[in-house]
Amino acid sequence: MKSRNGRGARGLFEASTQFLKSQQRLIKLLGTRGALGAKDTETAVLKLEKLVDEKRPAQFMSEAAKVNEKLTAGLKKQDTTGTKTDNAELALLLRMSKVIQETDDAKAVFTGVLALLKELVAFENGTLYLANRATGNLELAHQEGERVDLIRGVRFDHGFGLSSWVAKERRPILLNDLRREVQPGLPVVKSFLSVPLQVGSELIGVLNLSHSCAHAFGERDKELLILASSLAAATIEHLLHYQSIKELSVTDDLTALHNRRYFQERLTQQSQLAERYLHPYSLVFLDIDHFKQFNDAHGHAEGDKILTELGTVLKKWARTSDVVARYGGEEFVVLLPHTDSEGAMQAAERLRRAIEAHAFPRRRRITVSMGVASYPNDGKAETDLVQKADQALYLAKKAGRNCTQRIHELRLEPARQAAVN
Fold first, then answer.
1. Helix or strand or coil: residue 180?
2. What pLDDT digit, counting tens, does each position of 181-232 carry?
3. Which architecture, in CATH terms, is 122-216?
4. Global confidence as pTM
5. Residues contacting 94, CB < 8 A, separation 6+
6. Which of 46, 219, 255, 328 falls 20 to 30 Å from 417 in CA-CA distance?
7. Annotation marks residue 102 as catalytic
């Protein structure tokens, strides 16, 4: 877990650094176009450069926001005829860089970036594709209006369509007088503008814009979009790394399930909702039977394969609203919202049978013991429910394993009761 988090932290630092460098380029452009005085330009560039040199990523966004505020205020004061239009465009680019500082929600960032781009370049349909880091293929991330691409049936290195050609060649394309037959279910496209989104040499994605009128875009629009795409790419790259870090912090490295920390957070939220609205919910604790003996006999590498596969089984079984987490070692927990004791017992039994019937790596079979506790039957405080579910799991093991138990209905034979005591 530490190594993955370490790589993620380095990635976030690098993305933040690239974001600041894109800010520096924008500030220099402001100076070149006369929108900022030489002293203000130099001060802003040096301030961001100092942050990069001192490696203080925690202050990147807040300091960049302060610089943005000063630069935006400076642009508003500019009112010379020769630079007024340019200043408005540059101010929009500054606002784009603020999008990432205001939210870490992907949809909000994508919507904000495209909304600002629309103020620069009038388009009817905008489609944002992001490059999948594992496959390299472009995948739809967001669209405004209708989804647009051209030559969909032709494959290039990054998938099908003209977007993949743009991604492969890392070159923008402007088509201003398309004469295509109107196709049912597809938008009318007579003007098409596509640019790659890059951070340094890394491809982040591709942005397509279209219009139903011919000659809707000009060379000036292409230049503006190229300028904006660099800043948009840095903004999106920072967001993706931040989300990766956030996901790693609540995800178990081995099973890809949620971890104990995330489970505790969701349990607290569920407990508060239950107290307010009196909705039932249940916990299911489960533990792999005789897992220590399995590890001793076959080694921890084989044991890890069992845990990973069990994570897959749990994810397939769970509802969208359920929270499935690795609680520790070979112990797992499931939070079942809006589920009473009877419903939880039925769900747990279905899961237990599914695990028993599943063929694990090398056709191995495993069983699990399960303990169920429900609100409000077994307690109202979240700590009480966790304790009751854990006790029920312990008693399920003592009752012979490969079964499901709950405290308030447990009836043991005298011999097994003595074993528990």
1. coil
2. 667 777 888 999 999 988 777 888 899 999 999 999 988 888 888 878 877 7
3. 2-Layer Sandwich (3.30)
4. 0.52
5. 26, 68, 71, 72, 75
6. 328
7. no
